[in-house]
Design goal:
Helix 8 packs antiparallel against helix 10. 41% of the residues are buried. The chain has an eight-stranded mixed beta sheet, with helices on both faces. With 281 residues, the protein is an alpha/beta fold. The N and C termini lie far apart (61 Å). It has a single domain, classed as LmbE-like (Rossmann fold, 3-Layer(aba) Sandwich).
Length: 281
Amino acid sequence: MFNQPNSEVYIPDGKPFEMALARTTHLAIGAHQDDLEIMAIDGILQCYRIPEQWFCGVVVTDGRSSPRAGTYAKMSDETMMKIRYKEQKLAADIGEYGSQMMLGYPSSAVKNVDNKSVIKDLIKLLKLAKPTVVYTHNPTDKHPTHVAVFLRTIEALRQLDRKDRPIKILGCETWRDLDWLPDRLKINFDCSEKQDLQKALVKVFNSQISGGKRYDIAVMGRRVAHATFFQSHSTDKTSHLSFGMDLTPLIENPTLSVEKFTKHLIHEFENEVLEVLRAIS
């Protein structure tokens, strides 16, 4: 099905592959096992036990090069890959995803601009799924593999016929918060509901948590912090909040460079900060 020998397709409810993909409404494309549950929780919650709405998770890399400690310290790359695939499939079971794809690429291949295989696999998936909404990483993330997945996703979406493109493409926060974005440019994902589900989805990634990456605490803590610090002059409207940015302009205007798009966001942040300083100086 896909270009890598390590690729896997997992359908939690056992539906045939094409049928499972065709029902997709919300699709998330992340770099690593556990990224979807951190960045695309909005899509997972939007679809959880909601009739006619189905979440499809796509993990691009094989996870074999992840840092490890404790119980996992001496495990080989091959063993670590199998463990991380198992954890991702467990998350798909808990979240009742419509489908879960592991494309199985090494990070180096994703970051290699001359390697077009990732884009081809993503195009194939997007044509089959035809999601309404796509979640992925954003261009200001500080993890190079996350940025590479974002770039490959944009390239794949731009190559689709207009009839096959999603209505919305949303860039989500993982290795850099998006609280710096001016409020009018933020996409606010209210994560106040189903907190037990959210915690369970992150806790399955024990290979990372026991190795010292306390995602189980940090992810929920960040969502609480965003909700509390979102508005300085009013009481909290939500208990948990996550932020995104609208990437749709990059698809609507294929000539718009990612660099120009990103510079505009940074410039808007700069203007907002300077306006406050000037107003009270």
